């Protein structure tokens, strides 16, 4: 049997996996069709070229698929880890929340005149997580400790993942 703290950490990653997947997948698609259709609000683009139809729907689909896989493998972890069951509804909400959180932050950055690709530390790393937690909380009660842990660890995971994507030439910037 694992120590309680280790079990809680695994549970936190388990429950947020669809959101992490939804956030990580869009750059792999290299979408060509911007959500804002190239339109501007004032002198700045509404969202910019980084938010595409392909990335949006691909991210949501991939996050939901990860949740479906979790649903399939869950019975094999019940005795040892006692992980909460993942449902398609929850996976979908987490994936949609992650994508919408990222899109919302992009919209805010454009309104503030911050160009695409410029990092805004912490906000760039937590936008998708906060969106996922917000939508996911409609049907799942996240423990305060889980939320705290995810807020603390996600910036480091996000930076590591983006650095690896940059090295692999999947992203233009390492953040």
Low-confidence stretches: none
Query: Strand order across the biggest sheet?
Result: 1-2
Mean pLDDT: 91
Give the total of domains. 1
Task: Determine Rg (CA atoms, Å).
Answer: 17 Å
Strand count, sense and barrel status of the largest sheet are: 2 strands, antiparallel
Element-by-element helix/strand order: HHEEHHHHH
Q: Pairing-aware structural class of the strands and helices? A: mainly alpha
How does the overall form come out from the CA principal axes? elongated
Topology, number of strands: 2
Strand percentage: under 5%
How far apart are the first and last residues' alpha carbons, in Å? 37 Å
The helix count comes to 7
What percent of residues adopt helix (DSSP H or I)? 55-70%
* Oligomeric state, counting identical vs distinct chains: single chain
Structure description:
The chain is an all-alpha fold and 175 residues long. The protein has one domain. Helix content is 64%, strand content 2%. It has seven helices and two strands, in the order ααββααααα. Strands 1-2 form a two-stranded antiparallel sheet. A hairpin with a 2-residue loop joins strand 1 and strand 2. Helix 1 packs across helix 6 and helix 5 packs across helix 6. The longest helix has 24 residues. The radius of gyration is 17 Å and the shape is elongated. It starts with a helix and ends in an 8-residue tail after the last helix.
């Amino acid at each position: 049997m694992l120590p309680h703290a280790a079990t809680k950490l695994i549970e936190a990653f388990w429950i947020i996996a669809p959101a992490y997947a939804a956030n990580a997948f869009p750059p792999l698609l290299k979408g060509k069709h911007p959500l804002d259709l190239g339109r501007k609000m004032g002198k700045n683009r509404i969202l910019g070229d980084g938010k595409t139809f392909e990335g949006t729907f691909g991210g949501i689909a991939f996050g939901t698929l990860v949740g479906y896989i979790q649903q399939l493998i869950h019975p094999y972890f019940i005795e040892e880890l006692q992980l909460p069951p993942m449902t398609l509804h929850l996976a979908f909400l987490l994936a949609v929340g992650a994508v919408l959180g990222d899109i919302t932050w992009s919209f805010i950055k454009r309104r503030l005149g911050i160009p695409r690709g410029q990092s805004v530390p912490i906000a760039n790393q937590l936008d998708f997580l906060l969106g996922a937690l917000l939508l996911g909380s409609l049907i799942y009660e996240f423990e305060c400790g889980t939320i705290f842990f995810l807020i603390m660890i996600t910036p480091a995971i996000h930076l590591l993942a983006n650095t690896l994507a940059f090295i692999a030439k999947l992203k233009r910037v390492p953040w």
